[in-house]
Every structure is written in C-alpha cells, then in structure tokens.
What we know:
By secondary structure, this protein is mainly α. The chain contains 7 helices and 3 strands.
Amino acid sequence: MLDRPNPTLGTLLRDLIEKLDGAVERSYVDSGLDYRPRYTPVMRALLESGPASIRSISRAAGITHSAASQTVAQMVEKGLVQLEPGGDARERIVVLTPAAKAMIPKLKRHWSATNEAARMLDSELSVPLSDVLKEAIDALDRASFTQRIDAAAKGARSKRRKKT
C-alpha cells in the first residue's frame, strides 16, 4: 500500500493498475513475449472478428476510438498488426501479422492464468473487485465524473454563500 495516510481515488487507482498491469506485463516479458496488456482488447477483437476497422475494434473491445487508434499504432510499430486499405480512402483495416498469430497460443495461456489470478484476488476481497468495477462503470455511465465534479463544486459554492 502507499505510504500516504489518505490516498485519493486517483492515487489508489493508479497504484492498483500499476500492481495489476505491471504484474501481467512482467509475466509476458518473463515468457519471452514482446507484448503489453493494453494490446489485449484489440487482439481479442481481431481474434473474434478477423480483420476490422479501428471503429469496429473500439466497439468490440469496449474502448474509445482514440484508445483503439493509439493501441493499433503501437501494435503496428511492434509488428503485431498491419493496416490495409478499407472500403473508402479514409478507412484502414487492421490485420494481425504472422508474428502476432504465432503468439496466440502463448497469449491464450497467459489470459487464462490472468483470469484465474483475478478470480483468486476476487475471492480474497469482501466484495469482488470485478463487481465493484462494473458497478462503478455503470454509475459513471449514468452520470459522468465530470458531472459529479461540477455538482460537487456547485454544492461547495452554495455552502460558502450560505455561511456568509
């Protein structure tokens, strides 16, 4: 745990992601894979659907278009995917390279082990982390954190006015 006495939500989330993604990334490195956890949603989408546009990948993976685009660009640099012309001049289709296809059996073993490790973690918690995360995402879909910050700021201003 962090040394700060009362870490804020952002600090806690960064620490959690560092511990989770850091361990997953180390497991890839230890097994000789040049692969990052952030590639997984794109890789899984391509494995499920085959070659696809970035827009299709973002929808299938449940990530933003921007995140999909940035991840695909990194994967192009690593030689895991290539871009081919799409139906119009602006569209590019993302295709797995032979190097990426060769990784798939090893990746699937890693994904299985990672999912089992997550289940083990969930079993140690008072409430499964995966359930809390889904609940938080659903709540933020109903009212964004920006909306909540704005409401909190308005509430604070209103309280200050009442005191004066």
